[in-house]
Input
Amino acid sequence: MHTVFKVVVGVFCALWIFKEIALPLGVGAWLSEEYMRLVIKCDSAMEASWYGDTADVNEKRAQDIHLLDCHEYDKTRKTMLTAGLPEVYLSWLGLQALEIYQRPASEMSEQHRFTER
Amino acid sequence: MKYKFVLCVAPLLSIFSGVVIADAGVNLKLEKIIEVYELKACKPPPKKAGYEFGKFLFNSKLLSGDRDVSCATCHLTEKGLADGLPLAVGVGGEGESLSRLYEGKGTLVQRNAFSLFGRGHLVNTNFFWDGKVDSADDGRIFSPLGNQISKKFSSALAVAAVLPLTERDEFLGKSNFFSANELIKAAGDKYYGERYTALGRPLQERLKNEAKAELSNTSAWRVIDSPDFELADIGNGLASFIKTEFACRKSAWEAFLAGNKNALNAKQKEGAILFYGKARCATCHSGAAFTDFRFHSIGVPQGEFGPSTRRRDLGRAQVTNKREDMYRFRTPPLLAVGETSPYGHNGIFKSLEEVVLHHVNPMLIYLDDSSLSKPQNRLKVSKTLDSRDPKLQLIEIENEEELQRLVDFLKAL
Output
């Protein structure tokens, strides 16, 4: 009984560690870069379809095909959320990809500093 | 041992499944493209009366005043039915393709020769870079030959096919102060409409005298021998041949549309997705022949020669005389485009990469070509650049790899 209990607890712990830690970390490492790439592609598709002329049949068709990039973005996002990655992390990746996060002044000043004289 | 096996196989399976999923994504997008753009494989039309006559005429130099040019001279099979030259070389030229330039005896036609694939079958609305032969929805055909004369023509293609016959540079021949061939004598100093009438009889005589051996036992002879023979009969024959012979192009893209999903390689498939999607190529290069039959400007620099005054080429404005049509040209069909270099109405782009790049970066050609920076040119650049179609702003080509994928796809057409 004691052994069975230990095995059950052990398996449970292993599964818990896998689901809560290993899986999100692994999927995060595997898909984060791809996710950021798809954020840019989807943003580009949405912007182009916003500014494009929907009265032009061929332009509308091109927009439809371009927007398929957002379908891939959605799929990847769902895969990452299902794997346990928090939404906050995905939002942070999105902001990083689109470069619309708050920028510290050091980003502009650092390159002008003497490193040696 | 078992664990080692699992450790080795797992990453391979992961990579393989990734590739399979990515490929499935590409194929899914291509299926959507076919659905959204309503694309279908090309079906060739059946041979009709006039095909054999047209075949003879297409390859015959009898149609040119000095018997030195045929349609096949500038529409070569090995050059995608174009001629491989920046500007076509008409009467007086010798040989084929580049050799016509090297000899230096020929007369420049002042525009880049088009491929003939899909003409009449897929491309029906208008013809030539400036659409000077155009058909209206009610069946009327507009051309420099005049609306009344054109009524005997079976199609706009038939009119387009005979128009070069009335041009001095393309077929009529070189005029000489002391001597001239009978076609120049008959029509050389006349306007287009009058040339049409004037050329019918001497061409009929030529065909009767010099093509009898080849055509006397064919149905074409009845046409040639008829008292009602006129230039339109030649046009209708040529149109019948062109429409049937060059209806569909055997290409990887055609095979793909016909159902062979492996006809395109991975790079070409990526290029197709770009072409129909974010690169916006299909906004203008649409339909089976990859043209919308409309007139756009991509800001192609003026070359050293052109059919307008002062060696310029005003494009569609040559036909309409409208300011907004200046420097606009008919969207070129893209069938066989991989074989029809150089590109542009004046052949200024040497490669597909150059012309595709010009759609998104029109400055490069001005920087790379020193002749365009000469004093007489550098103050005129905005005329053509400012005429660029606003649609070009929507093109998204993000890196060199995407540019190359587009070119890969174009070569599959």
